[in-house]
Every structure is written in C-alpha cells, then in structure tokens.
Fold this protein.
Amino acid sequence: MTTQRWPDVLQPPDPARIAELLAHFWLHLQQLPDLLGRREYLLAEEHAGELRQLVIDLMLALNGIRRPVSTTHLNTYLSESQRAAIQKTLLLTEVSAESWIGRAVALVVIYRWYAPQLVAKFGLPYPHAAEAAALAHLQQSLPDWPLTITTD
C-alpha cells in the first residue's frame, strides 16, 4: 500500500526493517566507549548522528510510515513532542566524553519509549539480549555511564 501525500510518497513501515533497527541500535551504541576512550570525538559525533537517525526511523514507524527517500520535509512527519525530544540530542555544550554519554542516555530513553510500542504494534521480539549486552559493556567501559536508566 502506497499513500500519496505532498511532498513525498509515503509508504507503511516494514516490520522486518523495524526489527533490524531495534537490534541495531544496541549494537551501534556498544561502539561508543571505544571512540570516547580514544578521544575520537569527530567519529563520536557521527556515531551520535547515526543513533539519532535510528531513533527517528523508529518514531516514523510508530507514526505509520517509512522515512521517505530523499525527503526535505522530515519535520512534517514528526509530532511537535517527537521533534522536541530528538532536538535535545543535537547540541553539545562541550567536547567531552560526558557530553556524548548524556546524549547517548537521552537516545536510550527515547528508544525505550518507542521500542515497546513498536514491538506490540508489529508483533516483534524485543532485543533483550542485545540491550543487556550493550548496557553491560557501557557500564564496564565508561565510568560515567549510569547503572540504571529510567524512562518514566
């Protein structure tokens, strides 16, 4: 099913792709300690951007669409609260490991808000093992990584 809507042709989300995104988030997040440990801040910034794109794709899926190819109107497809949440992960106040950790934690909180809804909506498995492995690695590798992250 394809729905025409200006300015993009909108398509429904692909459940297999959503399952990939859910698992890939944790695998991708696990790479952060290595980058921060080596002070590869430019790569850490690219990495944060890639994590943000994964979360945006999850938001769009819950909104009932796939990210339109080559769109120049992404804001149109996100609610005001979705835009506000994701925009908080855009800015760094300083270049330090702590600032990237803060952004990564914010992305985890957003992910944990959307992932269970997507799992329920599309009948997908939640990637518990990938999440547990990633969080254990982050806690062991980054002294400032929180021991618990609540999404309430």
About this structure: Strands lie at 3-5, 8-10. The longest strand covers residues 3-5.
